[in-house]
Amino acid sequence: MEKQALILGGGVFGLAAALELRTRGWRVVLLDAGGIPHPDAASTDISKVVRMDYGADPLYTAMGEAAIRRWREWNARWGEDLFHEDGFLVMTRRPMTPGSFEHDSHAFLTARGHPLRRVGAETLRRAHPKWNAGAFADGYFNPQGGWAESGRVVARLKLDALAAGVEIHEHRPFHRWLEEGGRVRGVMDAHGAEWRADVVVSALGAWTPEHLPWLADRLHATAQSVFHFLPQNAAEWRAPAFPVWAADIGTTGWYGFPANANGVVKVANHGPGRRVRASDARMMPDGEEERFRAFLRATFPALADAPVAASRVCLYGDSFDGHFFLDHDPEHPGLFVATGDSGHAFKFTPVLGPLIADAVEGRPNPWLERFRWRGLGGTDGEKARAGGNK
Ligand SMILES: Cc1cc2nc3c(=O)[nH]c(=O)nc-3n(C[C@H](O)[C@H](O)[C@H](O)COP(=O)(O)OP(=O)(O)OC[C@H]3O[C@@H](n4cnc5c(N)ncnc54)[C@H](O)[C@@H]3O)c2cc1C
Q1: Domains (ranges, CATH) in the chain?
Q2: Which ligand 1 atom sits closest to the C-alpha of 255?
């Protein structure tokens, strides 16, 4: 008898899980509140950083290495590059010192045999002329990694899921749980329709604490601002001169992308952000554009006065410790939770599906230990955030 899974949410957590469970022979139904890619989903937008650089963290580094290999395979399978391996340029204003994200990533990856290139102010000036080289003393370039066209990846994964036989129902917002005999048996959607399954996988991203309120002590939504700038000559803002970059990300949070096919340069900040409710209206705080332009004036002067093509308030589904939740809910048998992206999960999309499916099926997987169900722990989250866990 075919096992049945019901997936709530068509972002990368939901779609990756749906595809992998379907491949393993499950009958899979996926519901999303809107169209997929949903305009408010974290997985949408024009680009996300894909890298293996995670300080001295062996697990995320290994997951990043594996994900990059699979992004390359996906490009080949898709017959188009939605993952652009332009490399990752990581710069700091001071010499790299032990304990910093930049130093530890460089040391850890070099020790693993990855061919990184150290970049000082002189090399920066010559090879990456858009940077204000005088302000940056040290860093490195990792030729492996780059960026993925996130919204297009979601659209592609939806097509792959449909082709694999996943049933996708858009504009079907989750409304309430169907519980019988102490077990979650399914959900009712906002139109009153009932959907039943052997397991319900909740992949609702930043909306999770609103629909699983018993997790509101461990999960919350954080708003982050994103700006898309339109420089005059886009060709000058592309790799190799202008790859994916991080500018003192360990202490300031600033990072960004080369110009995409439409000539748009995205700039974002992995900072504390603003705590919000995911279903509240998305408000861009006053002064945000000026905050971004002040950063650009100090770092990429030629971009500081470029017109804004678009801006976006995007939400992290933050967990208290910065790590994902990929596990069965011990208090709610029949319910599986896949969330807690904390602003850094998109890059792992190619390895998320097998990870979630192993957890759903209870198969051993050493990578799952960190993502197991857990109560409020220490302050790993703050440390993780400070370390530039992008
Ligand atoms: C500003 C920003 C920048 C980021 N940059 C990077 C980066 O550079 N690299 C990286 O690796 N990661 C990055 N991330 C993180 C990455 O985007 C997330 O980790 C990932 O997209 C989360 O996917 P998800 O499927 O959990 O959530 P989402 O993509 O948000 O999907 C959740 C889905 O649930 C649906 N939903 C909501 N409520 C309901 C309901 N009631 N019923 C049914 N469906 C519902 C939504 O419509 C949505 O489609 C960034 C995130 C943000 C916000």
Answers
A1: 4-44+151-219+321-371 (3.50.50.60), 67-148+220-319 (3.30.9.10)
A2: 8
